[in-house]
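User: I'm preparing a small set of examples for a lab meeting where we compare how different chains pack in three dimensions. I only have the primary sequence for this one, and I'd like the structure in token form so I can line it up with the others. Please keep the answer compact; I'll paste it straight into my notes.
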Amino acid sequence: MMARFRCTFAVLTTCLAGCATPASQSPSAPARAGTPHIVVDGAFDDWRGVPASVSTSNNAPTPTVHSAWTSADGEALFLRFALSSPVVLQAHDAATRIVIDVDGLAATGADIDGLEGADVVLEFSPAPANGGTRGGFVARTATGTTGTAHDVGYTGLPTHLSDTFEARIERATLEAFAGVKLGAEPRARIVSDAGGGALVAPGIVAWNPPPPARVALAAEADALERAPGTDVRVVQWNVADRTIRERPDAFVRVLRALAPDVLLLDELPATIDDAELGTFLARLGPDWSFALGAGGGRQRAAVASRLPLEPAPDFERVAYPDSVTALLPLATFPQTRRDLTTALQDGISAAGAYVELAGGRVLFVAVDLACCGGAESVEDRFRRIQADAINRAARAAVGRRDDISAIVVGGDFNLVGSRRPLEILGQSGPPVSARLRLQPVHALQLDGRTAATWRQDGPFGPGRLDWILYSPWSLAPLRAFVFESRDLSGAALERLGVRADDSDHTSDHLPVVADLRRSAPVRQ
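Assistant: Understood. Below is the structure token output for the 524-residue chain.
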């Protein structure tokens, strides 16, 4: 995985019924204070009751915006918009821009894409300066200053193929980047490029933000406590290759605070061996055992547990089918070419183990899928091949035993193209039975703002790349969250023995935590 080419699962729904507001070149009624609390998770149920700011029928041959919604609170502006056809915003062959008049004054800023007074432009899939492939995110001021998603306070999901998106823009960060204060009625226009020209959205949207106010409070230590009735706490973490070796103390502090029963680790260094991994796990406490996958080449995966564990033979080394070599002539990204060149030799980055719980055993699987690319790219097809091979290994592993009651799969799915890899992995059970089919745990960061699990101050915006899937037939999630050390209060940090910057010094991925309970089988 290359951390700079990332981006998330979502419930894909357009929720556009009844949005028949005529198009207008002037702002529609802006969102009022007191509108529903919006969480950027790639699902849109929390937008119910928010009227569309602009809406029109749109049958353009290229993806263009036909509906948009706005909301605001004391910390952020929120924007949801729907396109005429699905795209991957940060990996598309044409740019999409959100042009914002931060202070709401037409006399300041510049006229950009037909919006007078524009102060900031957020651009997805901008044209590269020196040729090459479009992709990523860039923010620009009207005076030409450029920045990243971090600089402008932008978070948006989903980052995989979709026709509907939602975004959160931090008010204070936006003001600092733009160099102007947020006005009483900031405005925006969404523009899609097509055929070298710009297709402008049907109207201008506006916000009516309430006064600045703290919305999300710092989490206390009890936010990390396992839910009552939990049978197993699972932590999935992409540990960013050499980072776990270079800064192990920060990883140990975080993992001690999270207190997992089972660890699903991916992107372990290629040269890690049983002795090194065992030494690291011993720092978490006694009785840890593990299964370290042999595949993956430059990146490996492991399942570790302080409960009784038995390695699953089918995951000792998950092999690629010979057909993977057909992708090599099509690959252009250097890392993808390198990975495809050695794929048959390396095998897939995955690990699996049977873990004993009260009432039976559960197959736990850790994975790391290929990075980069957009929908239907070589990388997207590469991920599907990996997901299918892992699925086959899971079927074989379950077929070996008659006491396996559930499967849990966790890892970096790198959903920056289609959702198909997630869907393939979600059908991990034998085809003769639906009882082991999987669904994702819904996990938000402790501040409740977003489901993003990856963030890096670079050319791509935050995304939900890391997932835990479970068997709903016999497991029930009681609590789930994405851990970020800066979400904790000072008292919580001291009590838990964690430092505020530990998440900054561990991985560009955040750990995903799920408390699961054994449940009575549910017929499906």
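A couple of notes for your slides: The chain has two domains: 45-206, 231-266+292-518. The chain has a mean pLDDT of 88.

User: Perfect, thanks.
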